[in-house]
Amino acid sequence: MTAALVNPVRRLLVIGGGYTGLRLARAAQRQGMAVQLTSREPRQDADGLVWLPFNSASEPPVLPPRQALHGTTDVVVCVPPEAGLGDPVLRLLGPILKELPLHWVGYLSTTGVYGDTGGAWVDETGATAPRPGRSQARLEAEQAWLASGLPVQRFRLPAIYGPGRSPFEALASGRSRLIHKPGQVFSRVHVDDIVGCLLHCQALSPERRPPVVNVVDDCPCPSSETLGYAAHLLDHKLPPMERFEAIAAAMSPMARSFWAENRRASNGLLRNTLGYTLRYPSYREGYRACLAEERAAAGAPARVEALGGGGQSPRSPGSAT
Length: 321
Description:
The chain contains eleven helices and 13 strands. The chain has one domain (10-307): Rossmann fold (3-Layer(aba) Sandwich), CATH 3.40.50. Helices cover 32% and strands 16% of the residues. By secondary structure, the protein is an alpha/beta fold. Strands 3-2-1-4-5-7-11 form a seven-stranded parallel beta sheet, sandwiched between helices. Strands 6-13 form a two-stranded parallel ribbon.
């Protein structure tokens, strides 16, 4: 028997090659996987990734060629549900996925499905009480994937940050806002820990994969704390503090919904049971790495290492993954 048959190459399909999806694809490719990604618009990168079309919003929908998916063993779904239509991947690609030799499907959801806990800790055993709208749609999509019969594992994500999605550019350009709401905290995670968690769980045997995992760091805290640390790393002045109750009426509905929920999501299952070690246990380590990578990309010296500290731009896994 050939080595290829004993240990066949994993073939990963990333549906939604956005910020998180592209970072995942590149990491999986470095591990030797055959990787394909989908995009709404035609594209091709110099790094050898294979892009396939998938646009559920066009009329008619644009789908990847069936033959291009042949042999796919693993799928990660990074696209959000559509208002009134549910999950577009299940709706349009579900029958094709069920014909594939899939070992594992990772579905990226949100910790928003837990709703507001008043700042209390919540783990994967906690009740789901999402607000109407995007979080409710995410929970319904989770349930649809569970009912699909596919080998699905759900990953609930908080605010996502990383290189290019950190507070540094907005802070330096004067667009940051320092908002104070007593008792308010947010959970967050560096994009590379999402990637690391997904690859870690993909490699586990099926019986070791829990049905749902919170992918969050160790340090839920106020946004004013993280912005203050970012200002320290840049040696930049903070913007004037604004009280939430004074500006809430002028906020966008999305911004108000972001501030309406207060919870601490626990990563105990990820770390203690699954044995995943966070690369960035808090925003401090994460912000340092972000600033160093952003400066390197801009050709600037990475002075941040001497400061000993880390970044986050709040993004739900809605349309931004």
